[in-house]
Amino acid sequence: MTLFLQAMSDIEELRQSDDVQQELREVQELLARHRVVEGLVHRQEMPRHELVENLVHKQHIAELHHKLDELRPADIAYILEALPLVERLFLWDLVKADRDGEILLEVSDAVRETLIEAMDSHELVAAAEKLDADEIADLAPDLPNEVMQDVFRALPIDEREQLRSAMSYDEDAVGALMDFDVITVREDVTLEVVLRYLRRFEDLPDHTDQLFVVDREECLKGTLPFNRMLITDPDEMVANIMQAEPLTLEPSDKAEAAAQAFERYDLVSAPVVDSQNRLIGRVTVNAVVDYIREESETEHLSRAGLREGEDIFASVWDSVKNRWSWLAVNLVTAFIASRVIGAFEGSIEKLVALAALMPIVAGIGGNSGNQTITMIVRAMALGHVQPESARVLLRKEIGVAMVNGLIWGSLLGCVAWWLYDSVQLGLVMTAAMMLNLIVAATVGVAVPLLRQRLGQDPAIGSSVMITAVTDSGGFFIFLGLATLFLL
């Protein structure tokens, strides 16, 4: 049954992906037709030229307006990210003002910057005012200070306090994911009273799967799941069917730990309480999914040495600024590798086969190191790696490296023996492969653990660092062994 549901979910995701791709193609076609017809009208010399141009312009604008009105904010965000800057800003001007805030929340950080730059202060304030306090907090780092001051002044006092609270938490804390929109009930009322209370709402908050039971001091007493409430006699008291000891989160908890709890216990929402057990908000599964996606994207970028997500249509200079730092590190490590090779120029001149074989040792070492570091970083993200387990992990990865080095090193040694008719060269190849894999395993375990101990992201630049070590180390080990035993 679980496999069936997972398959159905995958099919639904593919269908939605196809739908948004189709919407993107339709918008691009409308933009292309607009450009073509506008260009033709500009080249014509006819009476009432301006009238014709104005009518054509209005026709295409109306079609684009109609198309955008049919789309969800997330789909519009996807389309804006897929368009070059000029077309993106043209389309952004056509979006209804009351949807600006929702779309700004959905687009990537890099694209959001381009959209905010195209808006004046009044538009930004109007867009932010239509959002909840926790959503405004998500936008706050990208909004100008004067805009945030205007937004603060425009909010009611209670929402103003919520916004201050949301902005006070680190971005990797539960408080940053927290939603203040909660529905609370008392434990000394019947379900019939609760149902009548719920009917007074026009809409329930998104992802509401349970109500929160609190006392008069807003201390959390338990939760009332909807499924229990709907199948129980309406005359039953809330206290008799509520879940008395629900899983709770605190705003200072790590968002990563909350994500693991949602995955482990299949949660839709979870209450957030302060140190006195007072209910202050909730975390919902959509916020957790967004956090996991953003963390995954950041991790992939970090491994490649990129500091942040990049607008693919950004200017050349902006892209250069995002990519230069680890390219500089690469340049230094490449220079070191070249100096290692240069130190053995004499050996390479005497035995040309070394030049053909040494990239194999370095390449396999780099791949093995990346496998190790990927497994370690993933385990650290799941909370499976503790400092005291470092030695166990190191011994295990060195064991894996020795077995792989013996198997694949022996295979490559036999190939080298067959190609160059030299048993000694084959043995050197086998030994160098094994030693370089051991180096790769050691670095693959040590680097992320060391970065974590120093309070840094273990994933940042990991692939760059492991490649640098295995390249220089592989060249040095192979050429050094060859110099000792073959020349």
Ends distance: 65 Å
Q: How much of the residues is beta strand, in percent? A: under 5%
Helix content: 55-70%
Q: Total number of β-strand segments?
A: 5
CATH topology of the largest domain: Tetracycline Repressor, domain 2
Supply the CATH superfamily name of the largest domain: SLC41 divalent cation transporters, integral membrane domain
Please compute the radius of gyration using only Cα atoms. Answer: 30 Å
Count the domains: 3
What is the CATH top level name of the largest domain?
Mainly Alpha
Residue-averaged pLDDT: 84
Under the CATH scheme, the architecture of the largest domain is Orthogonal Bundle
Instruction: Name the overall outline.
Output: globular
Give the topology string: H per helix, E per strand: HHHHHHHHHHHEHEEHHHEEHHHHHHH
Detailed description of the structure:
This protein is mainly α. The protein has three domains: 12-176, MgtE N-terminal fold; 184-303, CBS-domain (Roll); 316-486, SLC41 divalent cation transporters, integral membrane domain (Tetracycline Repressor, domain 2, Orthogonal Bundle). The chain contains 22 helices and five strands. It has a three-stranded mixed sheet with strand order 1-2-3. A two-stranded antiparallel sheet has the order 4-5.
Considering the chains and any ligands shown, give keywords for the structure.
single chain; 69% helix; 487 residues; disordered N terminus; Tetracycline Repressor, domain 2; mainly alpha; CBS-domain; 5% strand
